[in-house]
Amino acid sequence: MAETEPQSPPPTIRREDYRPPAFLVDQVDLHLALHPTATRVKAKLALRRNPAAAPAADLELDGEALTLLAARLDGAPLGADRLAHLPGGGLRVADVPAAFTLETEVGISPEANSELSGLYLSGGNYFTQCEAEGFRRITYFPDRPDVMARYTTTLEADRAACPVLLSNGNPDGAGELPDGRHWARWVDPHPKPSYLFAVVAGDLVAMRDRFTTRSGRKVALGIYVRKGDEDACGHAMDSLKRSMAWDEDTYGLEYDLDVFNIAAVSDFNMGAMENKGLNVFNTKYILARPETATDADYEGIETVVAHEYFHNWTGNRVTCRDWFQLSLKEGLTVFRDQHFSADQGSAAVKRIGDVRRLRAAQFPEDAGPMAHPVRPDSYVEINNFYTATVYQKGAEVVRMMRRLIGEANFRKGMDLYIARHDNQAVTIEDFVRAMQDASGTDLSRFARWYAQAGTPALRVRDAFDKASGRYTLTLAQSTPPTPGQPEKQPVPIPVAMGLIGPDGAELPGAGLLLLEEAEQGFTFEGLPAKPVPSLLRGYSAPVKLSGLSLEQLGFLAAHDTDPFVRWDSAQQYATAEMLRLVEEVRSQKPLALPEGLAAIFGAALDRAMEDPAFAAEALVLPSEDFVADQMAVADPEAIHAMRQFLRGALGTRFSPRLAALHGALEETGPYRIDGASIGRRALRNASLAYLARAEGAAGAEGLARAEQQFEAGRNMTDVLAALRVLADSDSPARQAALDAFHGKWRHDDLVLDKWFAIQASAARPDALEAVRALARHPDFDLRNPNRARSLIGAFAAGNPARFHDASGDGYRFLAEMVIALDAVNTQVAARLVSPLGLWKRQDAARGALMRAGLERILARPGLSKGTYEKVSKSLA
Ligand code: 0A1
Ligand code: ZN
Hints:
By secondary structure, the chain is an alpha+beta fold. The chain is 41% helix and 21% strand. The protein has 28 helices and 31 strands. The strands form 8 sheets. It has an 8-stranded mixed sheet with strand order 6-5-9-3-2-12-15-14, with no helix packed on it. Zinc ion (ZN) binds at residues 307, 311, 330, 333.
């Protein structure tokens, strides 16, 4: 047998190498005859040479996993002398005229498509996913976002198997065909990039509604799901209508087609996709019933439905010139969905959740081997750059810009951006320029936020001169080096702030400081006494603030008028105490509950009923990963022991009040998903979790309450919170509860995902064994991304104590799973690599074991380029 050829590494794509496309496509006429293993795709493209590009004699089209059946140029068949297959699957047509039509016919197999990119089957129905580069798996095409074309799509399929035939745009006829087949045509009047193309076909049913835009356009809304799920679309539909109204009210942006359809699919690589007029959603972000969906699920649906809808303007009408500009649509659209959700309920609680997610996902990315700017400079596999940095940090950058130029100017800037660039594929510079021109503010330095990776550290010092009443705040910034960027420049950091007097009253002087240099002093005159500075109100910049004393943090936690700073100061206070306790665990000292922390916790309980949603956030201790991120060398065992100790000690100390809250907040009425009800359930379940960890009788009472709450089964939020408490305990009721849950929900995929995830993230000593057994469970399916993530992702990213087991078994498990998955679905495989990449944070022994896991993956012959990129960069 021949030796395997040594593989040459896949090429790196660089932003600086961008060249305009040699050919443009004005019109695309597609005809898809759907068949599970032999779908035929006919494409007729009206092409012309791009006057803005260097002239080329040959046309090169992207293609992947296509079988070419026929090709014609201006009606004449193209022979082998004019056609060449390119490495990777593309097609070259030699010697083409300045303008022409190209017709191709290809064969594809949706059934063989486990990658879930291009046209694939899920539960017998057809779906497409074309972002970023999936359209080339459907037909030969210049598959890049700066080629915008008008599409008509005709679908043909067996009527019994596929009564529903959907594509982008407006419907334009349908009819019968011989042999039980039928057809439908869709016309999309708006030019679009190929990544927004979509087809959905199969045996689906629709929940329907209507929306009239403010200029009077009547839009037919449809959410397509599998039979039996029609009753679970109400929240998604309601979220959609609220999103449509919000975008009109907030940005004057109206919907632009006669239909807006959403189709839900159980096999999907991401959350959802904004295809023009036909969004495709992971069922996780559509289906919700009180018995099956948690409050977090309801919130996720609202956010993701809004996000995809908002893309219609920020992404679809104005799109990206190339994939380096991804944050142009994603950062802006995340900012818009965050703003929308904040407007639907408590803005402060929403902001706290968003910042928590930023710190949990983006900060580690920015400090790890994959760190990249919001606008990356290079990539190997673009699918690896749908990251927390591009999405969440990108949204923070837009938010900062809005704070700098003001709300009214930001709105003007949005209007200008859309007026200038409607139906264009543009760059981040174009967006910043619109904001600059509309506001008259020079944003050239601010643009560094898009170019520089790494989380800036912001350090504060202060001084007070009693005699003159002058108070000086000195702010200093520095950004750590990241791969490929050893030196960093200062970035403009907007610091929203206030001053709090010793009596807790807000003093004059609140406002916005702009730190533009490495270090700057800001003075405040005429103060009667030394104030405590309240900094980064509303989290005005995505930076790590330090320099306040424990005393100042405790004071802000109690007195600040800004709810975000109140919450964050308590978190920072807890973090400092937790870091101290970790050292005590390491030197085997007995641990004691820090009284300052107990006081903050007690005060949060005292005020809990004023704002239960806020209180629920305030009661949660910083996560184990967050604490690890603050250490030079993490110690997962010690961190876990410390945090478990604290949870138990707080539960014990406050058990009467926790029990009282749990009792008082019991719901008797119907399930409601308004912010107030969600907040009360969150507070009640946070109380339960502490109570169940208390020592002695209180803890036993907590577990008994959990059992009762599990059995009462009023809604999935309460059931799951109770099950989580039991799954994390040694209660004899634990296994029975897990079994009962499985027995009841084994036929509901989304609920079963929760059952897998709860066990994978339970920090019991036997967790990995349980996870390995679950990977062999008949209900486990590596091919389903939600299921794979619920087990593997929940363990590797959500169970630090067990993933980092000193034996290295957790790392070995993840490496095995990534290897198995890479043969099935490379996108999901590559995403799951991330936890192994953070080996620099661990001690030398763990670091070596983590690297061994990465090396094992890398040694695998035939590894995909996406997984290769993640693993090789993680080892560098
Ligand atoms: N644009 C979508 C995200 C998305 C990206 C890639 C996908 O397939 C590989 C699917 C969805 C969004 O931001 O929601
Ligand atoms: Zn998006």
